[in-house]
Write a structure and sequence with these properties.
Blueprint (H helix, E strand, L loop, with lengths): L5 H30 L5 H13 L2 H12 L4 H7 L9 H25 L3 H9 L4 H12 L1 H17 L2 H7 L9 H10 L3 H37 L1
Length: 227
């Protein structure tokens, strides 16, 4: 059996890049939306959450329209000789779009649980909004942000539909683990498909279990300080 490990390396590269971008993008947008009380809040929140309920192929089609050769972003990048469609960068874009709502919604839920008096006290003591965000809000919401990051990582790792549409399945270049599983199954290579299933199962479970133990550790630590 000829087994190629490149899908694992591509998946890890895509997942780590997309999760890192989603981490900073998600907590920033979540914080802005937590503090935004305008009349467009419902509409904006709906748009930001939309990829969570849309079929991944629809999200992939929308990304294709945006970054494809005839799309606005694709046209702009072509001026500099850059074409990201059917590259691992396109897989990163697909993973960011599909996993973003998990990072955004979970983090916003954590921000909304913060006692407003804590934030008001920081502002009263002269802290700028930037300091209130990084020194107060983010540390207090850390367990929720950690959970959001773990879910985002798992979602990026398992992304299939949108990735296949915008990055394709080029062995050694854009073929991720879920795509490798699909094509191995289609070609009747069930042993290879099973190995990939076990690998992605093990990685996802490990990330979620580590996050659960970390959350328990932090809660016990807080109880220790409280007691």
């Amino acid at each position: 059996m000829n087994f190629d490990f490149s899908p694992a390396l591509i998946s890890i590269k895509v997942t780590l890049t997309a999760t890192t971008i989603n981490f900073f993008l998600g907590i920033t947008v979540a914080w802005l939306m937590t503090n935004y009380k305008g009349k467009w809040r419902g509409l904006i929140d709906g748009i930001l959450t939309l990829p969570l309920v849309l079929p991944p192929t629809v999200a992939g089609f929308a990304i294709l329209l945006l970054i494809g050769k005839n799309g606005p972003v694709g046209n702009f990048l072509s001026i500099f000789g850059v074409n990201i469609i059917f590259s691992w960068y396109a897989a990163v874009v697909a993973a960011i779009v599909v996993a973003f709502p998990l990072m955004y919604k979970t983090t916003m839920g954590a921000f909304e649980q913060i006692d407003p008096n804590i934030l008001s006290a920081a502002r009263t003591l002269g802290a700028s909004e930037k300091k209130v965000f990084w020194r107060v809000a983010v540390p207090v919401a850390r367990p929720g942000i950690a959970a959001a990051t773990a879910l985002t990582f798992a979602r990026c790792l398992g992304e299939f539909g949108a990735t296949l549409m915008v990055a394709g399945s080029i062995p050694g270049k854009t073929e991720t683990i879920p795509v490798a599983i699909y094509f191995a199954t289609q070609s009747g290579e069930m042993q290879i498909a099973l190995i990939w299933v076990m690998i992605i199962f093990a990685i996802s479970l490990t990330v979620l279990v580590i996050n659960n133990y970390w959350e328990s550790y932090k809660k016990n630590q807080q109880r220790g300080f409280g007691g």
